[in-house]
Amino acid sequence: MWYDFLRGICPRFLRQKPLGPYIADFYCPTAKLVIELDGSQHYTDEGQERDAWRSGLLSEIGIRVLRFSNLEVDHDFQSVCQMIMQELKKKEGTP
Question: Whole-prediction pTM value?
Fold first, then answer.
């Protein structure tokens, strides 16, 4: 995701960005957007509960979280990129 897409787009994303007690996979401070790529551990009951809690805390400070499974990235990379771009455009206020 980083080498094939995020490192080359604007606004700029950061990798492995500490946000409070958490480390976001990718963070765009301009858009206040976190991108998380989730492996299988995120799909257990405990993992989903932890992720929902974390996303809720980030939401409270105005940061939106988009989550994608590793499988989505591997099998439908273009759609994942399009969803990220759509979210960035919403933040910019463009249609």
Answer: 0.85
Give the burial string for 24-62 (b: 16+ CB within 10 Å, else e): bbbbbeebebbbbbbeeebeeeeeeeebeebbeebeeee
Question: Would you list the domain boundaries of the chain?
Answer: 6-92
Separation of alpha carbons 25 and 14, rounded Å: 8
Average pLDDT, the chain: 88
For the chain, the C-alpha Rg in angstroms (whole number) is: 13
Q: What CATH number does the domain located at 6-92 have?
A: 3.40.960.10
CA 28 to chain centre: 9
Cα 22 from Cα 5, distance rounded (Å): 23
